[in-house]
Specification:
Layout lengths: L1 H20 L5 H8 L6 H4 L3 H25 L4 H33 L5 H6 L5 H12 L18 H23 L1 H26 L13 H6 L2 H30 L3 H24 L2 H10 L5 H27 L4 H7 L2 H7 L2 H18 L8 H41 L2
Length: about 425
């Protein structure tokens, strides 16, 4: 899980680095050329990286809560209060520091030609944070403000969704513990309702299959940041967490007795299918994105509706199956890579990287006084690696100064009630 978490946050940073540097990349002629590359779909359609975090969150919350329910036979009111208080404090204190840095400190250090634009009008700017900071701390910033291009801390919509999912997750999890059949049916039913909602909104407003494959600029506001659409990967993670809690140890003990060749024969087809699905989710929009970017025509309604309603489920389901394979001893060399001990250190910084990387990229680009036209590929690579390195270094400071001390202090109280 640590390896997936680190690779996913690096993917998120890659997409945001390109998003904020697009206007510096040698003009529109270069942008139109680079989008023609099929391998560049990893950047322009990197949205599944966020769904990976939703699926991981749902998986872990479910597995850990089910273990607590099994251990105690249920939770007392004070333990439920601690359950939510723990989550809020652990997320909010570093988040508050990030809001202060992005909303107020960056205004003082940006001096480039775009500094005024980025500090007064852009998402996460001083003006926006001064107006909407409270919505982030209440985790309602995916609703207020309603316009998707306003608000404090641009990536904060994810935290709002994740907190909202965390609040309602025990409804599904406790049902799965006390009434498994009802709980599973309810989880799948909620997933189906979410998919139908995405399909209806897409069809009604004539949206494209993704933000980068859409001439309608309302995709972000109507679909991308709204919980009734984004909850599907989280629900898939909940199902995966329940499955691993229920059957994980039994499957793992059975797999240990199998010869290696049989493990490979059992796991290889599943890995191949899940990888093919993930490839289709990321690269399947190539023709649609070309149509939008080159000819300014939206994809067919059938393509848009099917992708918006099913792609997130397909990605999350494939990833969850892969996690289960690794956890049950069928991961092979992939599990060896993802289980590298170095990931554990980096994974502790992923939350702080998520909080800081967008602001750091904004400051860096706000200082630039030229376009990246000499060798845009090379310069963009340097830019991405620079933003990534600065994000991890800054994240280390935020983790040591805020996240870890708050976690330790809060954990002393939380553990007493566990």
């Amino acid at each position: 899980l640590n390896g997936i978490r680190v690779l996913s946050i690096n993917w998120v940073v890659l997409g945001h680095a390109y998003l904020f540097s697009a206007s510096f990349l040698g003009g529109f002629s270069y942008i139109s050329e680079i989008i023609k590359r099929r391998n560049f779909m990893v950047v322009v359609n990197g949205f599944p990286s966020v769904d990976s975090f939703f699926a991981l969150s749902g998986f872990l919350v479910t597995y850990l809560l089910l273990k607590q329910l099994a251990k105690r036979g249920g939770l007392s009111p004070s333990q439920w209060i601690a359950f939510y208080f723990h989550r809020y404090v652990r997320l909010t204190m570093p988040y508050l520091v990030a809001i202060l840095i992005e909303g107020w400190l960056y205004k003082l250090v940006m001096t480039g030609p775009r500094a005024q634009q980025m500090t007064e009008t852009s998402m996460g700017s001083h003006a926006m944070c001064k107006k909407y900071w409270y919505t982030n701390l209440l985790y309602i910033n995916n609703f207020v403000p309603w316009k998707a291009d306003e608000g404090c801390v641009g990536q904060g919509w994810y935290l709002a969704n994740d907190m909202q999912f965390f609040i309602i997750a025990p409804i599904f999890i406790t049902l799965q513990y006390w009434r498994p059949l009802i709980g599973l049916i309810g989880t799948v039913g909620a997933m189906i309702c979410s998919a139908i909602t995405a399909a209806v909104i897409t069809a009604h407003y004539h949206l494209g299959p993704a933000i980068t494959a859409d001439t309608n600029q309302d995709d972000m506001r109507l679909l991308y940041i709204k919980p009734w659409v984004r909850i599907t990967p989280y629900l898939v993670g909940i199902l995966g967490g329940w499955f691993y809690w229920k059957w994980g140890e039994k499957i793992s003990s059975g797999v240990k007795s199998l010869p290696e060749w049989l493990k490979v024969m059992c796991a290889a087809p599943i890995w191949a299918v899940t990888a093919a699905v993930q490839y289709g989710v990321v690269f399947g929009l190539y023709d649609d994105i070309q149509a939008v970017q080159q000819h300014h025509t939206n994809p067919s309604e059938a393509d848009s509706v099917s992708y918006q309603s099913l792609a997130r489920i397909a990605w999350a389901l494939s990833l969850t199956v892969q996690i289960l394979l690794c956890q049950c001893g069928l991961g092979g060399f992939i599990n060896s890579i993802l289980s590298w001990s170095g990931w554990q250190i980096l994974s502790r910084l992923t939350y702080s990287v998520f909080l800081l990387h967008l602001g750091l990229g904004t400051v860096l680009l706000g200082q630039m006084r030229h376009t990246l036209f000499l060798n845009p590929d090379f310069e963009f690579s340097v830019l991405y690696l620079g933003i990534l390195a600065m994000s991890y270094l800054s994240a280390g400071v935020l983790y040591l100064a805020v996240e870890q001390p708050v976690g330790n202090l809060e954990g002393l109280t939380y553990r007493k009630d566990r």
